[in-house]
Amino acid sequence: MKFAILFVIFLSGVSSLPNVEEELHAHWRNYKSIHEKSYETDEEEQMRKDLWHANRKFIDNHNKLYEAGVVTYTLAQNHLSDRTEEELRSLRNFKGNSKTLPGKVHTLSGNKIPESIDWRTVGGINPIRDQSECGACWTFSAVASLEFQYWNMTKSLISLSEEQLLSCMEGKSCKSGGVMSEAYDYLKTHKLQTRDSYPYTTSSQKCCYDEEKGVLAGVDSYVSIPEGCEDLLTDAVAHHGVISVAMNSLEPSFVNYSGGIYAPNTTLCDPKGIDHGIAIVGYGTDAKDGDFYWVRNSWGTKWGMGGYFKIARNRNNTCGIATLASYPIIKN
Fold first, then answer.
1. Contact present, 187 and 218 (Cβ < 8 Å)
2. CA-CA distance, 28 to 33, in Å (whole number)?
3. What is the Cα–Cα distance from 174 to 178, expressed in whole angstroms?
4. Among residues 62, 106, 190, 276, which one is catalytic?
């Protein structure tokens, strides 16, 4: 009798295995459909599925910690969840450090700043963009701040060209990486065209700059925020709008971030290891989880919260968010 019961239990366990596999494959098909994925060979698809599955387990485990109140942010699968580490590294091509910014230094304005601000609700910020497979994050960071400064001066919102910076700055390409201050230096002697007149192609093509089509007259100078000074960074956001920054984005959870205040263990997110250009568009305070910045990424709207994320503020320079911050002063 005991043997018969054990045999039935064994059979039920075995019979459930195909159901688990079928359910997993159904989720995989759904993922491919949502993100319009297709692969050249069966071998590549299996490799992508394995990466996706590993991410799925990582996300599930992390979100259990969120539900238990251990962490302050959630994860979810997105269009990057089937990428290799090498492919992900190509998206993070910021090449700078705290010594890169010799420009003017921001000082406290002395004026009271609001408890929170979100420049997206005011104007001067275009829809989220996608840098695609190109390591051009630094151009998107610079352009976001330039567009806001132009809007703040003229009250006209225009879309400026990342491609011009990528193709016309000496030595730059999708693989070379760059720094926002280099873009500002280039614009001291060049105008910047619109996206319509110089569209983003990710091809790092031959420079086709046409000065007559330049809309932004250029940059007079730029202002840097001293490394790690978050009171000055918050003051700059309050008084000067969108600020170009960089961060350490190597912590595995960042790729699959979906909501909440991003605040990973600092040992996994060294403030000195900045590798990804982004732009701060606001700040605030959550009653439960504390101070944060609103940050604009360039990985499309399917990433994060419609392309944006919140990162901890006033918490020992989380992931280097205040390590290399700057904003341009544009020409009239």
1. yes
2. 9
3. 9
4. 276
Contact 63, 55 (CB under 8 A): no
Kindly name the residue from 137, 168, 269, 319 that is annotated as catalytic. 137
Concatenate the DSSP letters of all residues of 183-241 into one string.
Answer: HHHHTTSS-EEBTTTS---SS-------GGGEEE--EEEEEEEPTT-HHHHHHHHHHH-
Q: Is 276 a catalytic residue?
A: yes
Return the H-helix or E-strand segment holding 67: helix 42-67
Residue 55 catalytic? no
- Distance between CA 215 and CA 211 in Å, rounded? 9
- Out of 78, 93, 248, 297, the active site residue is 297
**Residue 310 host element (H or E):** strand 308-312
Structural domains in the chain? 2-75 (no CATH), 95-330 (3.90.70.10)
Q: What is the pLDDT along the chain (332 residues), one digit of tens a residue?
A: 444 444 444 444 444 556 878 888 899 999 999 999 999 999 999 999 999 999 999 999 999 999 999 999 999 999 999 999 989 988 887 876 655 555 688 888 778 899 999 999 998 999 999 999 899 999 999 999 999 999 999 999 999 999 999 999 999 989 888 999 999 999 999 999 999 999 999 866 789 999 999 998 889 999 999 999 999 999 999 999 999 999 999 888 999 999 999 999 877 799 988 999 999 999 999 999 999 999 999 999 999 999 999 999 999 999 999 999 999 999 88
Our answer to whether residue 190 is catalytic in this structure is no
